[in-house]
Amino acid sequence: MSSASDGFPAPMAEEPPCSSATAAAGRPPVRVQLPGLALDPLSEADVVNHVVRQWSAGAGGLIVTPNVDIWLRMRREPDTALLVSSADIVVADGQPLVLAARLMGEPLPGRVTGASLVESLSAAAAVHDIPVYVIGGGEAEVALLAASSLADRHRGLQVVGHVTPPHGFERDPVLLDELVSHVVSCGPGIVLVGLGFPKQEWLAKVLMARLPQAWFLGCGAGVEMAAGRRRRAPGWAQRCGLEWLARLVQEPRRLARRYLVDDAPAAVALLVASAVRRWHR
Known about the structure:
6-stranded parallel β-sheet; 281 residues; Rossmann fold; disordered N terminus
């Protein structure tokens, strides 16, 4: 999906973190270079702490949590690859990415999912008085339910606004401008964007131009999960990297082809390429 078809401007290229010196300046440490994807070696707690520190210093950014499906799109679509690589934090949502890094001899702390970050960032926002805004997709009340549920679970959380944009808003300049103006007027410090990849990341880039001090998380189904409209896999499945199987059971018609036909062979190819790269090194 190109930036033209999405209706959003192409993001400007940014230099990724490249040395330990940049970490001291507020950036994450050196990224782990997988075939076609660079990942920050950060745990979920590291991400949350980084966001809190940077927001307190008046700096914002974008968090992207790629999985194998996103990795595949990056291989096919240069605009998508640029979008992910230009994010301020890129952490592995998919277990195959974690395994690939391990095969290369550059292990990551583990998976960091968008759904988990919705909760942990909200918990930190409640403690540090960071205002939160929720953008959800699908049914009109999803964002409202997510905002209410997060406020109930995290005492003291300031949810300053929520919206579920109408279908096709990104192609309508009037609707897009209304959405951007509303989010900006609420003055959030953290924006949870659950519109699906890459629409949520394109929107985050548009909003960042007006809210440079805010942090944006592209969380996919994380908003629906926060709203209680979609169930997460049991904890053991999450720890074992089998969350995809639980989602497949819930939505077989929508996800069977993606997971079994597209993603599974791609995951095997990524693991083999990572092992070969380490052997050559």
